[in-house]
Write a structure and sequence with these properties.
The protein has 323 residues and is an all-alpha fold. It folds into 2 domains: 20-174, no CATH class; 185-204 and 215-323, no CATH class. The chain has helices spanning 2-15, 23-31, 35-48, 51-75, 80-83, 100-116, 119-138, 144-174, 177-202, 222-244, 253-281, 287-314, and strands at 247-248, 319-320. Strands 1-2 form a two-stranded antiparallel ribbon. Helix 3 crosses helix 11, helix 4 (51-75) crosses helix 8 (144-174) and helix 10 runs parallel beside helix 12 (287-314). The radius of gyration is 20 Å and the shape is globular. The model has no long low-confidence stretch (mean pLDDT 93).
Amino acid sequence: MESLQNFGIALIVALQTLSPALDGVMYFFSFLGTVEFFMIFIPLVYWLVDPKLGFRLLILLNLTTLVTMSCKLLFHQPRPYWLGGVKELSTEPSYGIPSSHASSSVAMLGYLAYRLKKNWLTALLVGVVLLIALSRLYLGVHFPHDVLAGWLIGFLMIVVFVWGEKKLSPWLNRLSAGAQTSLGFAVSLAIILIGLLIRVLIAPYPDPAAWADFAIQARSLSYHVTLAGTFFGAVAGYSLMLRYAPFRPAATWWRLIVCYALGIVSLLILNSGLDLLFGLLAADESTIGFLLRYIRYATINFWAIFAAPWIFLNLKLVRPAVE
């Protein structure tokens, strides 16, 4: 591992000779692989393009991040700037390998390319994936092997997800709304249990003193709680949407713009409001804090998947799925 790290640091140092000239460009492409970007991108697909595709992108992102964050904990390896020798152009509280930017971008954009089957779009998305990976090296937050591991996870998640769609979708579609919601809740609890078990497994292996101060939040349960709440809120919301607010995207540009503006502003306000309120009620790293985090992410995803389309329908901004 040390030889890989040394090679990676040498490569990053070479890339960073282009700093600060390329800093802004690299920050932009790094942003395209963040949760914050997907938080504004997935609703765009879900509300304005295809609800089914948007929902599946959200579930794929959730599961890919689960695998990636779990592997980060299991390997508990440092980031380049934790070891020194490179510029600290960005910071991250989690462990290094595998890169979540790499895994998420490959899974999300690869799945889009697979579904839409446009050669020009596939070429564009491949370019974006490569630039996102390059930005993570340039910023000093990932080694090359972190990125390669992330790409591998992203590719495997597409394969497994597409296989799961074909095998599980008919069975899931036959379940009642209550059964689907209950299943979503059970899976969300399993996500938290996975996080707890991994932390028990790595507890006997403390981080080296040389970079332990950088990894203070790396073993936090908050990552898995966030994913659990997101999964439950999305599944519950989609199940209810199909039964009580099935919709097709608006047919006119002005309605599409109004839907997205109304939806994304409301979503961001709800997210920020709950974050502020719950932060006043309990510390993040506490049992109550984790419970409130679960509720927060379940709520904002339920709102985006069910409540927003229901409002759009009642305002006649979108069309019923069956007219």
